[in-house]
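Hi there,

I know you've been waiting on this one. I reran it after we fixed the sequence typo, so this is the corrected version. Both the input and the resulting structure follow.
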Amino acid sequence: MPVNPSRQVVTVGNIALSFHRGVAAVTRRVLEAHGHRVNSIEAPHEQMFRLQEEGEVDVLVSAWLPSSHDTYLSRYRDRVRVLTPQYEPYCVWAVPPYVPAGEVREVADLARPEVAERMTTAIRGINPGAGISRFSAHMVTEYGLDRLGYTFTPGSESGFVDRVERGIADREWLVVPLWRPQYLNRVHGLRPLVEPKGLLGTVDSAGPVISREALERIHPDAVARLGGLHLGNEGVEELDALINVAGLTPLQAADRFLAAHPELSV
């Protein structure tokens, strides 16, 4: 079915992290396969949801619900449709695999004097609007880690990754406020710590968010395809690794990923 001119341009907005760029690139290929031209924009977490709320974004990639992003989406949820989840993300605090599991198994172990003496107490994260950043700032105080000198400082994605890479190269004992899916998991084999208080949220459902106004313009087959496109955490980490390890652009990563997974053909 040809797409009429009023349906052609769709604005896809993604949260400004590499794995979101990869999922947005797959989303773009789906829309293009159904006759649309795509404008792409990105912004940090809260700003991206604000842009959709203000009508600047047709398809937002992606909302993690309920834990991480409901605080942003709830302001305008009656004006959008959240599609079927494409993956199931969750937040963790992790440590490198060379930190002995017998000494650091759960978050509370970070407060043990013999562990605190060895750990790097300055914990670095990504931008402050991310769920993992909000949760991590709370964790430092709730576990009393601040009394032992631990701090949490949000920052850029590139600064966070550089800090993790340098720390692991130097075999530091460091806390990595992380999430799945994220390529560092598969590259470094980071070990999640047990967190019994539930301060890192639940396992979320992550799917595209389409404004109801845009649903009138987007080809219904494209909407159905996006709703049925289950990438899984492993798939999103594969996309993320293609971008960050193989050095591909998000669109190149999407094309290679889709070619390697014909069952996900757009």
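Quick highlight: Residues 92-192 form a domain with the D-Maltodextrin-Binding Protein; domain 2 fold (CATH 3.40.190.100).

Best,
R. S.
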